[in-house]
Predict the structure.
Amino acid sequence: MSFNDFLLDTEALAVSEEARLMVRDEIDPEYLRAMDRDEIKFPRKIYETFARHNLLGIRFPKKYGGRGLNWVAAVAAMAEIGYLGTACGCAYVMPDIVGEGLIRFGTEEQKMKYLKPMLEGKLVAAEALTEPRGGSDFFGATSRAIDNGDHFLVTGQKRFVVGAEGADFFVVYVRTNLDPKASPYERISTLIIDRSPKVEVKYLYGLMGTRGGGTGRLTFRNVKVPKENLLGPLNGGALVFNRMMIPERITSAAPCIGGMRAGLELAARYTDRRMAFGKKIRKFQLVSAMLARGITLMDASAGIVYQAALAADRNDPRIRRLASEAKRFVTDNSWEISNLVMQMMGGIGYTNVYPVERALRDARLCQIWTGTNQIMDLMIQHDYYDELLKQTGKYRQSELDAENATAEEEKIYDDDDMWRVLETENK
Ligand SMILES: Cc1cc2nc3c(=O)[nH]c(=O)nc-3n(C[C@H](O)[C@H](O)[C@H](O)COP(=O)(O)OP(=O)(O)OC[C@H]3O[C@@H](n4cnc5c(N)ncnc54)[C@H](O)[C@@H]3O)c2cc1C
């Protein structure tokens, strides 16, 4: 049975079963090892295996190569595929992220030219937001596209673009409104840029983990991009970005569930066999408590992922907050679980005899990419204040349940309140 099968309907269960069997039977361990050794720079073979099973972008319409399934089914498949580690997980979810931009903002021609072949495994996409000058300050992007008649001329640099090494096209955010007074939200556009000799791709980072995922730097020097490759409105990149961030965050979280499961299974099997002081180490409560904590964190993580998936399926307005919470919560738990797993395994966990140290190196990235967890916190609190402060009278006001709830003279929030109270008392 698939992971969390009781949460899934028949369709989601069937697709997660397919993913589980593919992960179990069709991925060569030596290929994964070669990726971690940086000998394979992009897992195209694995990407093509996903495509052969029609598992890429399963929530997109069949017409474009998907399966017309929902978000819940998609995250169920991601939770299985995440078992292979973050680099494969990322290659798997990239069509979901890029596909969101194409399905929501693309013209029919763009969908047929890019979305369909991408879901068929014929094209690989990458998404380029981060620049050497900064990733968190996304709207400060300086790469630019100059209007030159029927095309743009693009100049600039993007860095840490995962999948760059294997990509056939890039979804790139560039500045198109060069007016210095233009609002940051109205000066960026999204372009689809085909790979060409003019787009320099350098695979140059000595990454701590998530190796073999193709992370590279892109340099554009007067790259000619036809106007029909504008995705969404001119200067409307913020719209595309805000939409793409939903799958970006959900898909950063969902594959982590598979990684957690892989680690906890290793630790459970190990502690069930390893002996110390004449008994299995799982019999020491300090050890089994680590496993209990890890399992609980994994299940709580799956819970928040499915919550976000349901919100996405139902177009709930809270989706941005829930997707950010999922990314934040799950990636932090993924890091904690990899540490618990290593701890449960003792010294051998710190070697490459078990893939535990690789999982730990992989997990650390998840707190950084697709928007750092600090940026997630900014989004979560922002959206929560927004929701709460607009809402009055819907729920019981717990404030009134306090013994001294009517002590208005003590409910001072600012200077004006204090003076108002003083003036009232003086009257
Ligand atoms: C392996 C890898 C793959 C990646 N893949 C991609 C990809 O495919 N496409 C892509 O575009 N990018 C990708 N990234 C980039 C990633 O998204 C950025 O690294 C990340 O968003 C952070 O940006 P930065 O590195 O410039 O750090 P900075 O933005 O410089 O942040 C540095 C620190 O400052 C904090 N900080 C910054 N601003 C604030 C604020 N307002 N409030 C609180 N704290 C703040 C951050 O949280 C962080 O702790 C990848 C990165 C790596 C390492």
Observations:
- The chain has twelve helices and ten strands.
- Residues 127-130, 134-136, 160-162, 207, 210, 215, 365, 368-372, 374-375, 378 surround flavin-adenine dinucleotide (CB under 6 Å).
- The longest strand covers residues 151-161.
